[in-house]
Amino acid sequence: MTYALEELIDLDTYRLDKPDSDAYHAVVRDARTKLRSVGCAVIKDLVRADAVARINEEIVDRKHTTHFSVEVMNPYFHTTPNPDFPEHHPVNTFLERSSGFIPGDCWESGTAIDALFRAPELAQFLADCLEIDALHCYADPLAGLTANILDPGQQFTWHFDTNDFAVTVLVQDADSGGEFQYCPAIRSATDENFEGISAVLDGGESIGRSGGVHTLELRPGDLQIFRGRHSLHRVKRVAADSQPRHAAIFAYTEQPGVIGRVQRTKQLFGRVLPEHEAAERRRVRSDPLLD
Fold this sequence. Notes:
With 291 residues, this protein is of the alpha+beta class. The radius of gyration is 18 Å and the shape is globular. Helices cover 26% and strands 21% of the residues. It has helices spanning 5-8, 22-38, 49-61, 112-117, 120-130, 194-201, 262-269, 274-282, and strands at residues 40-43, 67-73, 95-102, 136-137, 145-150, 156-159, 166-172, 180-183, 214-216, 223-226, 232-235, 245-250, 252-253. The protein starts with a helix and ends in a 9-residue tail after the last helix. It is built from eight helices and 13 strands. Helix 2 crosses helix 5 (120-130).
């Protein structure tokens, strides 16, 4: 099936089809302001309600392909203690991550979720919001287009992303729990800010530049642009008596042909492909952060 842009996105409110319009520029300006100030912009009800319902059906139809995993990890996705750091330190603080991902090779062309992810108008809108020239769909065959699944009782604990930014669409909200929380810019490329991170992991407010823990009130159809490389974040535990939380994860890169890291791919999807092994041999780190 082929989907037209107007079947997926509320073009009456968000003129992604008219990037020269005043309405388009107003939304972009607002998103830029929020990304600069708090590292996150939420475009409310961007995805049409009937499109959200269709995408949720696609997720449910493929839920049997979900790779669920339960592990204890630190905010840097490491799972073993590091003797170079004290016992009570973010590097040696391990919390439960219990969640699942439907991988990218489960979404065939013609699905609504794939059509939305690959819409050039959406990619250009996101690039404009992020103040970069262009974006490309993440070439990773597993992590480019995914759905994050949090079943009752599951959580995605405090962590940092390897990418500079993430794009998600909430598809199905939990009845109870499942809130997205983050600490904007709690670290930088040159300062890990372990003190501030430790305060958050201990259940308090972060110290320094982040301005504390922010909680988002998201609803199905909301698109979130989030700078997760420097912002500690989590999805709280979904209540035991709640419906599952489903979110579409759209990954884009500034350069074409980018493939994800082997270790993180194994953690999230339980497997890697030859493309990941080849990319790992060519990889050059962009910053000295722990991850």
